Amino acid sequence: MGEAEVESQQVHALAISAARPSKHLSLSPSFQRCAYSSWIRENIHKRECCFFEKGVREDTCRCGYLKTDHVDEAIKPEDFTGEPWDRHRHIREVPTDAFGDISFGGLGQKTGKYVRVSTDTSPEVLYSLLTEQWKLSPPNLLISVTGGAKNFYLKARLKNMFHRGLIKVAQTTGAWIITGGTHTGVMKHVGQAVRDYAISSSSMQGQIVAIGVATWGIIHNRDTLVHPEGCFPAHYLMDVKDQGRLSCLDNNHTHFLLVDDGTHGRYGVEIELRSQLEKCISGKRIGNKESGVTIPVVCVVLDGGPGTLDTIYNAMLNGTPCVVLEGSGRIADVIAQVAGLPVTRVTIALIHQLMKRFFGQEYETFADLKIIKWTKMIQDIIRIPQLLTVFRVSEDSHGDVDVAILQALLKASRTSESLGIECWKRQLELAIAWNRVDIAETEIFTEESQWKSSDLHWAMFSALVGNRPRFVSLLLENGVSLRDFLQDEETLCELYKQLPTCFFLRKLAKRVHSSRRSGRRQAFAIRARVHSGQGEMISMTHVCEEVRHLMGGFTQPLYPPSTMTFHFNMTMEDTSLSLSKSQAGSQASLREDDVAQRDPGRDLFLWAIVQNNKELAEIAWEQCRDCMSAALAATKILKKMAEEGSDADEAEDMRELANHYEKHAIGVFSKCHNNDEERARKLLVRASPLWGRTTCLRLALEADDKNFVAQSGVQALLTQIWCGELSVDNPVWRVMVCMVFFPLIYTGFLVFRRDEIIQREAERKEEIKTVETVTGSTLRTNSRSFDSHSLRRLKTLSCWSRLVCLYSSPQVKFYWNIVSYFAFLFLFAVVLMIDFQDTPSAGEVLLYIWLLSLVCEEVRQLFHDPDGFGFRKKAKMYIHDLWNILDVLSIILFIIGLAFRLTSRLFYAGKIILCIDFVVFCLRLMAIFTISRTLGPKIIIVRRMMMDMFFFMFLLSIWVVAYGVAKQGILIHNDNRLDWIVRGAVYEPYLIIFGDFPSNIDNTAFDIDSCTMNGTDPLKPKCPVLNENQTPAFPEWLTIIMLCVYLLFANILLLNLLIAIFNFTFQEVQDNTDRIWKFQRYELIKEYHSRPAAPPPFIIFSHLYLFIRNMVLRRPLSKSKEFNNELPQIEEEELLSWEALMKDRYLQSTEQEQSQSMERRIQDTAQKVSTMTDRLEREEESSSAAVMERLARLEEQVIQSTRALQWIMDNLKSQDLATKEALTAATATDETPDTLRNVSENIDGFHVNARQFHYPNSKILRFPVPEEKVPWEVSFSSYMPTYYTSEDSGDHVDGSESEVLDNYRNPGGRTGIRGQGSLSHLGPNLNVELVVTRWQDSDRSVLEYLAVWDESHGTLALPGGPVQSADQLPVTLKRTMGKTLYEKLNAKVSEGMKVFEGYVDDCRNTDNAWVETTVLNIHLDRTSQVMVDINNMMVSSHGSLQWQELSGKTRLSSNQRDSLRQVAELHNRKF
Cβ atoms within 10 A of the Cβ of 648, count? Predict the structure, then answer.
């Protein structure tokens, strides 16, 4: 099992476990800190001196630390007495005492993490520290910034470009930046770039990781970082002024690895560990995947000295690309100047000149041998152009620094050994990991690269899972087919497995867990189940169930039941075989469904929507076939998830995305309606096989998409359904007249829709004939043949059909029900006021029958479910309707009143209940106004104001009760009659608001006869407390003041507040009432569309007919096509194609609107101004640079003229021969360019491998030999090569015997080392390489060669080895090939063709010993005996012998590749 799969399963196991109640508390910060400290002490160590020995000063040790800094055991050691101090022996490792968080203080309170580590710390441990303990995400790129350690000046433009480019590449690619970590030189510039990013970016963006690897012993104020238990945080003071020879840490880096070797004041201690760490990181794979590329490393160079040159040289030898910034100074500028030159022109004199120019006074300290060595290193550097990139500010090709860095990495991957699709795949994988579409567009998807859809499927999967929407678009543009990509359903399953943490994943985990616990077994599964780490499974069955839950139970499963996996390329017959026999419906319709439901655009769009990913969803929506249904389904799913989610921010994002797709649906439908109204209406009510066989209109209603439903096209459809077969242009009064006098419909008094269609088609046909008569063309007639045929099929309505269409129209049903309802209310009122007897009269019985018909109709509405919602959903929808609540309430009250009325004891109570019920029935009458365009919106406003009034009454009741209780307590003493208490405390204060002022609070209006003294009269209120004069004793001034204050607040303040609230509500709702009314209008239209034609009480006969038909006869309901229409397959495809065209037009118009918007224009103008400014600055800098170059050339010419004049003067003064000889020697030593040029012209190319600094399998370093000094003919007075002869060599020659060595001189020139080296003897060492070839088949299409396994290098190679004579094979091949095969091939050596013979550039060559190789090609016939022996030997060799295709993809050494190239040319084959 792959590592990526294990990781994915672990993530999903965690997601599933999140659905369970947590049994453990989260770890506290103090516990985490304790665990971190324990890990540090176990794995990280520091180094300290354990033997104090006096150094330069009395109190200073040889290690550089003071005596007081040593432990007591180190001052008087017993183990090392009498020994001299040794850094390797007297420095030991102990657990580190400096780690934790570092705080630099100042503005922003910058904090980071740090640790003091030993130089011997394993890089794997450091990587674990960075990723696991410090919680850093593994990088997609490692940027090692090196250069000048001292402060240097950068031009403002270059500085800005470096800062911006470095941060951009780190931010977009998720890179780590590694520097020296101190507040000087290039590290300071990197820190400033990180600081600028932190200031300009928001806290929501990712943090830039800048890791400083510094030497512990040179850190100033490092004592503040030391604490045995760690510092959380350590307050570090940056004291640059008093740092002396030490350095301060840079406060803008985020992490610090402080490398300790136990010494103080030694710079460069961290270099080795830093290189090891970089190498370790470069060996990790991007994203910790088992498959994929390793983390790339790039070296960015600014300024720098000789040490930087060593760093660049070693990095490039290890295959690390380097980016050098021209203009940053010193060694960077030296390399930049010679980067574009041929190696032969990079001479010692040129390097002298450039060093003097860019190093200034520092150049005087450089020795000649050092410059010779640096010349050789620079030549080797520019000899690897694929690893060297020079960023020049004056050039437009690189753009910014970030582009140059990424281009350098891609250029490095285009080596000769990795050509073809593998090379492009690696580059594309890097670009996706970096999320740099611009790089992929310019560097990868070019005319050179040829991609198939299948070659990019892995890239599409990575882009989707990694949330790279721009890459998804790029891949789709470059040939990726979604149909091919999602052909295997395992791919879709893997996408759901890789969902990021989101609400849908949590819901899915809960569903999986609950199904696991209940032990349910699904009836079908679209794909094989995927087991998580805990044995639980996530399948497409669960996805299907969860999506159906979000969309609603009225939809069918998006992934229908099947017993096998469906593929996109399945034929209709194959698909029919996989259908389940238990499914309802015909097999023909199911076949159509299965083919249609495998829409890859739908699957991808749904996957993006459930994770609330706007960018990916937008791309997938453009690929959907049924785009309008997809947009409306997305609004339903998103709003449902927002409703169920607990995260307010996430829910708000979902609502915003839902509104976005509602606008998309509106835009597409508007384009469709403007183009063809009839087809647009079909789109609204057509059943979509892709989205659960529901309709766009139903989805919009369920998603509460009021804006969509309020469109004129949707309302036109509803109006058409409302009118039925009647024309929408008929006036209402004509319809009402025909309702009573129906014979008028046969006179043309009413217009039917069928008649309109026939008339319209006839008029169109006449127009076409007229045009054809004028133009004489018959083309139009042919194009309308189908319309003529359809016109002949349309027949006028018969008399009976017209009558049925009239009374089955929802509009007519509604009017009849209004008349019936008024009649019902009239009868109800008559019964209550006139004819309410002990024994029910005939009118009252008719009223009961009438009500029974209403009850039956309500029951029918409750159980009538044409959309397939289910009883639970249907009941919920029924209860949520206000008018249905009034219906149920009125029926319940009527039944209660009827039950009371039939009993003698409760007869009058029953009548009261029925009277109240009459009020409810009258309120229900308001429902008839909802169809009115004028009164309908006003009812919505009234409902909203009722809610406002409810909250207002709550506020008013506070004042009423407060005043009423206070007044009642002051006036009345201990009244125990509850009814009079309520009247005095609540009723009377409430009436005061409407002007009914009380008389008992004023003595002047007091009447003792109007009240009772002791409260014994139940019809009179109790008198207030009286005094001796029989007058009220309450303080009159207080009650009047209380009344005035009460009236002030209640009548003036609160009532005016109520008016203001109503006014605000009216203004707020007025703009939306029309939209809300249009949305609610649908339910009324649908209700009367499905309602029987007869009004109550005659409707009871229709109910009886429906009951017998459905319940007794069990006949299925006839489905209406008005709200859900099943289209034939051909018409469905035509309609979807037309919809796709309208969608493209909508997207195009939207893009044009955005491009013409004011914001886009301002943005484009600003970008153009910025581009012009950059170009002007670049031109200004290039012109000034050109002037400086001319002045430098002029200065050089003046110097040369001065030297020539001085030479002439010296010759005139002294004409002796010695001076001339000296002059000749000096001339030869100066190495004029002309002489070097002549030598280089004579020799095509010098050996390179033979001049590598490190001699193989030894610690010997060659003497540097620049390109110009290779030929023996060129004088090289300072040439002092090292003598080396390996102990394993055959013949040994004493180094003092130079006469013997002088007899053997390498024909390729100087190598930098004398002696025999690791070769067997001095002089030429013969070597034979055998290229055994054959044709792979009889067609001779593929040429193959025989390769052997080289155990020493672990690679394949050509069979060969050292020989004494070129006429025989190497003896070493006998062991590999076997004795028999070796002898047979040896016999064919004479028949072989010499492909090459001569000197070979081998890394083992020396000045006195070298390798000469003979390459032989032996071509074998497939039927020869030797071929039989080779094949037998290959079986027994277990891979030591292999046939390989001879092509450019062969991975061999450069010399052997050249040999194969010549063999291919020999056989007329392309290499």
Answer: 9
Residue where the block lists tokens 């947009």? 631
- Residue 769: which residues within 8 A CB-CB, separation 6 or more? 781
C-alpha closest to that of 717 among 1123, 251, 256, 1162: 1123
- Predicted local confidence at residue 148, as pLDDT: 83
Q: How far apart are CA 847 and CA 921, in angstroms?
A: 13
CA distance 351 to 353: 5
CB-based contact 1281:1313 (threshold 8 Å): yes
The helix (H) or strand (E) run that includes residue 1343 is strand 1343-1350
Q: Count the Cβ atoms, other than its own, within 10 Å of residue 159.
A: 17
Quote the CA–CA distance of 537 and 540 in Å, as a whole number: 10
Checking DSSP bridges between strand 530-531 and strand 231-235, what pairing results, if any? unpaired
Cβ atoms of residues 212 and 205 within 8 Å? no
One-character DSSP codes across 172-195: HHTEEEEE--BSSHHHHHHHHHHH
C-alpha 1325/C-alpha 1408 separation (Å) is 11
Q: By the 8 A CB rule, do 130 and 212 touch?
A: no
Quote the tokens at residue 937.
């919106």
Residue 156 has pLDDT above 90, yes or no: no
The confidence score (pLDDT) of residue 535 equals 40
The full DSSP string for 758-824 is HHHHHHHHHHHHHHHHHH---HHHHHTHHHHHHHHH--PPPHHHHHHHHHTSHHHHHHHHHHHHHHH
Here the tokens at position 1212 are 């005139």
> What value does the mean pLDDT of the chain take?
79
Phi and psi dihedrals of 647, rounded to 5?
A: -85, 115
Q: How far apart are alpha carbons 586 and 588 in whole angstroms? A: 5
Distance CA 688, CA 700 (A): 13
CA dihedral sign, ordered 688, 690, 693, 697: negative
Among residues 441, 108, 141, the alpha carbon closest in space to that of 298 is found at 141
Which element (helix H / strand E) includes 1464? Answer: helix 1454-1466
Structure confidence at residue 1461 (pLDDT): 87
Q: Is 1204 helix (H, G, I), strand (E, B) or coil?
A: helix
In sequence order, what E strands does 303-357 have? 322-325
Burial (0-12, 13-18, 19+ Cβ within 10 Å), 824: buried
Give me the residue label for tokens 């909250």: 951
Tell me the three state secondary structure of residue 165: helix
Per the CB < 8 A criterion, the answer to whether 281 and 128 are in contact is: no
**Would you mind telling me the total number of residues written for the chain in this entry?**
1471
For 1091-1111, write each residue's pLDDT tens digit: 888 888 888 888 788 888 877
Q: How far apart are CA 297 and CA 595, in angstroms?
A: 48
- pLDDT reported for residue 6: 39
Helix intervals (H) in 383-420: 401-413
For the chain, what is the total number of helices (H) and then of strands (E)? 55, 23
DSSP label of 688:
B
Chain centroid to Cα 773, Å, comes to 62
Angle at 231 between CA 229 and CA 236, to 5 degrees: 145
Number of neighbours of residue 1135 by Cβ within 10 angstroms: 18
Report the C-alpha gap between 1360 and 1378 in whole angstroms.
14
8 A C-beta contact, residue 237 and residue 195: no
How far apart CA 921 and CA 4 sit, in angstroms, is: 67
Does the structure show a pLDDT above 90 at 656?
A: yes
Q: What is the mean pLDDT of residues 181-204?
A: 77
Of the candidates 1009, 1005, 1038, 1040, the one whose C-alpha atom is nearest the C-alpha of residue 1023 is: 1009
**In contact, 875 and 888? CB cutoff 8 Å:** no
Euclidean distance between CA atoms 614 and 401, whole angstroms: 31
Phi, psi of 1113, rounded to the nearest 5 degrees: -85, -15
Residues forming a β-bridge with 96: none
pLDDT digits (tens, 9 = 90+) for 765-786: 888 888 878 876 654 444 333 3
